[in-house]
Amino acid sequence: MSAAPLDVVPLWALFLALVVASLLIDECGFRFGCRRAGRAEKESDAIVGSMVAAEFGLLAFLLAFTFGIGASRYEARRQILLDEANAIGTTYLRAAMLSTPEREDARRLLKEYVDVRIGAATGTPLDEVIRRSEAIHGRLWADAVTAAARDVRSVPVGLFVQSLNEVIDLHAKRLTAVLRSRMPIVVWGVLFAVALLSFLAMGYQAGLTGASRSPAVVLIALTFGSVVWLVADLDRPGQGFLRVTQQPMIDLRNSMDHEPSSSAGLP
């Protein structure tokens, strides 16, 4: 759906790769720590333990930071969709005040527009959705121009143009939220680097102290992979389990179908 580098990796594969990589890196750190433990000048366990704690504290901070970015952008996409549904609904109601034939044409186009927007979440290619949406914008604007040419000072036409302009603006905002407001690759890179060093340090400490391998390492790796999977899911619009619901658009489309005939419009 976008050109973000991590999008080429399925979410399940990302989770599995992170868990396996974390365990392998921990094992490398453990073996290196075992080698260092045999030296005459042994490092202080307390100092190494403090470093490991600081490293994992920094990793926890970065996970919270990236989750906050993902969650805020998910909420922004949800709010933009709700605003768009409200703007389309307002435009549809105001179109009833236009003269025939602009009234019927505008309302028909708005119904088609809602169908196109819903189709973006049901498998329709994004390029096609954008192309059809912008084509409908042009036809609706042509209707507005025709209606305004008939009566420049018409208040209903002015209200229709105002709400139509908001619909077009929200289309641009929604594209920005979906395609361009993604997690920067630098943030992902720093997060993975800190995670690598954290697991390396944890394994190193275990090898240095001669402690037996604990199954808790697997739990930590699974926890880390789960949190990163969640952040990646939030950062991928239209993919994964955490998708913005299209119910506001669906409800709007249903209300359009069940609305009484627009015979109350201007002749």
Helix content: over 70%
Question: What is the total domain count?
Answer: 1
- How far the N terminus sits from the C terminus, by CA atoms, comes to 45 Å
Number of helices: 8
Q: Average the pLDDT over all residues and give the rounded result.
A: 87
Would you list the SSEs in sequence order as H and E?
HHHHHHHH
Low-confidence stretches: 261-267
Structural class: mainly alpha
Number of strands: 0
Proportion of β residues?
Answer: under 5%
Radius of gyration of CA atoms, rounded to a whole number: 28 Å
User: What composes the largest sheet?
Assistant: none
CA-based shape: rod-shaped
Describe the structure.
The chain has 267 residues and is an all-alpha fold. The chain has one domain (5-258). It has 8 helices and no strands. Helix 2 (45-95) packs parallel to helix 7. The chain is rod-shaped and about 95 Å long. 27% of the residues are buried.
Brief write-up:
76% of the residues lie in helices and 0% in strands.
Strand-helix topology:
Blueprint: H1 11-37, H2 45-95, H3 102-119, H4 126-150, H5 155-180, H6 185-209, H7 216-234, H8 247-258
Helix pairs in contact: 1-6, 1-7, 2-3, 2-5, 2-6, 2-7, 2-8, 3-4, 3-8, 4-5
Give me some keywords for this one.
single chain; 267 residues; mainly alpha; rod-shaped
